[in-house]
């Protein structure tokens, strides 16, 4: 399996499992799960650049560096772990975060963040990382990364809810600017 193919399949799965399942006529259940056989058939019929197989899906799920996707126990269903712009119930369990979490972004969003904090925008949650290295990777996808330190422990004690996704991304509804440390 070459990495170019795996990346292409991962991007396509992100589209159909996180944002637009209707692109291939796929139906997700209320928890975001898709039937694996139906996904394979509809990917091959409606637009995946690569011939989708169970083996290819398995490879992408197991080898994705961010663990973006997950199978159910018997591998008959698949879903995105988080990052949905469509309404799904992931049954996340509330968790207490560490004192600090991190968010990677780029300079063009800094003024807005200083005014409004971090907003979920079209997603269901704001995504935070447990370490700066992961935040740097996230921020680097769109240019020179700006790393924000979030005072998550204080937020939690102030009543904000945090959730930890299956792939260890911290999620919350918003991060008001007063909880963000901006480096000048």
TrEMBL record:
Organism superkingdom: Bacteria
Q: Give the GO biological process terms.
A: tRNA splicing, via endonucleolytic cleavage and ligation
Q: Cite the EC number.
A: 2.7.1.-
Keywords (A to Z) from UniProt: NAD, Transferase
Annotated Pfam families:
PTS_2-RNA (PF01885)
Q: Where are the transmembrane segments?
A: none
Enzyme class (EC, first level) = transferase
State what this protein does. Answer: Removes the 2'-phosphate from RNA via an intermediate in which the phosphate is ADP-ribosylated by NAD followed by a presumed transesterification to release the RNA and generate ADP-ribose 1''-2''-cyclic phosphate (APPR>P). May function as an ADP-ribosylase.
Q: Which family does the UniProt entry place this protein in?
A: Belongs to the KptA/TPT1 family.
HAMAP family per the record? Answer: KptA
* Name the UniProt record assigns to this protein: Probable RNA 2'-phosphotransferase
**Organism, scientific name:** Flavobacterium tructae
């Amino acid at each position: 399996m070459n990495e170019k193919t795996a990346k292409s399949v991962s991007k396509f799965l992100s589209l159909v499992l996180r944002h637009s399942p209707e692109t291939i006529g796929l139906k997700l259940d209320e928890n975001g799960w898709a039937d694996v056989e139906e996904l394979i058939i509809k990917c091959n019929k409606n637009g995946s650049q690569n011939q989708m197989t169970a083996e290819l899906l398995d490879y992408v799920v197991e080898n994705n560096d961010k663990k973006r996707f997950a199978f159910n126990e018997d591998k008959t269903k698949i879903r995105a772990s988080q990052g949905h712009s469509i309404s799904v119930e992931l049954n996340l369990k509330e968790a207490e975060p560490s004192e600090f979490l991190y968010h990677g972004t780029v300079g063009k969003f800094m003024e807005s963040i200083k005014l409004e904090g971090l907003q979920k925008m079209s997603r269901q949650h704001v995504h935070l990382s447990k370490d700066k290295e992961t935040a740097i990777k996230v921020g680097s996808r769109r240019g020179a990364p700006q790393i924000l330190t979030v005072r998550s422990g204080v937020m939690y004690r102030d009543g904000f809810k945090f959730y930890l996704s299956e792939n260890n991304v911290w999620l919350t509804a918003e991060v008001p600017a007063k909880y963000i440390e901006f480096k000048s």
